[in-house]
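Morning, I've got a small favour to ask if you have a moment. I owe you a coffee for this, so here goes:
>
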Amino acid sequence: MGSQNVIVGTAGHIDHGKSALVERLTGIHPDRFREEQERGITLDLGFAALEIDNTTISFVDVPGHEKLIRNMIAGATGIDIILFAVDATEGIKPQTIEHADILSVLNIEILIVVLTKSDKVSEALLNRRFSEAKEFFNRFSYPHKKILTASIYDQNTIDNLRETLYECSELIKNRYISDNYLMRIDRSFSIKGAGTIVTGSCITGQIKTGDDIELLPAGIQTKVKNIQVHSKNSPSASAGDRAALNVTGVDKDKVHRGDIAAAPKVFSPAASFYARLRTFSSISRKDVIKHNKSYRFLIGTYAGEAKIILLGKKSLNAGESALCKVVPDKPYTPLFGEAFFLRSLSPQVTVAGGRVLSIDNFGLDKNNLITFLSCMENGQTEEAFKVLETHIEGTIDIPAPVQFTDKNSVEINHLIKKYFISAGSSLTPRKYFSKITDMGKEEIFSGRPVSLSGYHKYFKNSENIWKIFRENLIRLAETNGYTYENDKIFKKRKSVHEKLAEEIYEKMSQDISLSNTANLSSSLNISEKAAANALTILTNKGKIKKLDEKNFIRTDIFDNFIQNAVETAKKEQYIDLKKAKTIIEAPRKILIPLIEQLDKTGLFTNKDNKRYLKEG
């Protein structure tokens, strides 16, 4: 296994032994991080790291105090494993329940519950506490769940916990698959002589010293001058790292906790987004969430307020869920599946958690939007694409894949190609594109001149898609003999010379001897000048080919003769005048220059007026 960084979030009721566990595992007591913080570059949420083989396990405290609930949620951002401490002497407490509710929303796959202080209780009580913990945590759907007992005075239990952490680290899957860098900022400050520092959790991609970076939602463009990972200088920072970035030319007051540092021009801040919201069953009162009301809102490292617009419901009671629109008090840059929380303003309690499903409604009406969101929630991405293809009229912009879905870019690009015409991030459904194209064809073929600018309104939100449509319609029109000039498509009236050229072209297929101006003049009762003009028109269009100074032949007849001459020479060793007559019925004045044309193909060798195919 290659090297990796794992973030473990420690949770649990205050005084249930989290700090003591971490100190026994790492040799560092959490109180030390306050001293390090004063030196300027440590992360305010992390406090220790443990090295096992090629794996770095970083511990992030999820504080237990009620007043630090905001830090708890911010600390949970980017966590891979939850280490949940439950005091064996006290068992499950109200704060245990609240923390467990909150953490269950975060889409973290691995839970390790540790019954601490196991040396202070009898074996019978320890067994009872184990059963209680198992029953309680079985309410939550973690794919990987382990319950251990531990005592800081029993080295075997500490070794067992360390081994369990290492085993679980091998089960981690990257929740956000993207090559583009994104970090959620939890602090911004300045150091004399260095400038502004932003710290936080790296969620996707990698950043290197000297790279350009964008601070969202403000859209500030800057560069990374220096990087620290786990308080040490580093040439780069990657997904899973806790990092500090020294950015150039940015005032620390322009960057805030809750902002994003990201690869430029990739991610889209959203003024609102759509989500699945679930109220916690541990909340006792009714009407926990009301439609169109504002609540304290926490997502990533951001804390503010947000209005909740329920889709299809007026309120949510404890333990209920609904799809909803979330309108934060300032734009945020969410990722697909990202967790968020709501707290009631009075009393101050965390009442609900949700996950982001879409940062746009793509112009869908309410019913189709609900269908689309349900597909996204259930991992039915192709079904969601079908909803968009069927119901969108016009163009849409798809956000960065990691903001749109949990599927990788290969799968997404396949679906885009299957259901949409694309130009950059702009898409239009193939069904819609065909519908507008058919409208254009019908108007063109009606015989009236068609102004192309009249079709711009159907693709007005994307100049790139409009350009593709315009070029497609012009090409289609010209293929069918129409002309495009000055924004108009029309059927050009043919001149007398063009009509004569078309007539001669048809006659030349019926009678191959109609090959020069003299023959054409006498046969069609036209002047030699008119015949010569018609032959020039046909030559310029590539419809006929000049054989010698006087004679011409249709290009399709000529190509057919060459092909058959090659086949004949393969079968009969060579081709001469006699064999040429079996391929094409023509007078000598045509056959002789035709055979001479074989020499110009480079395929034949001429010996005694017999053409042999060259070897190889």
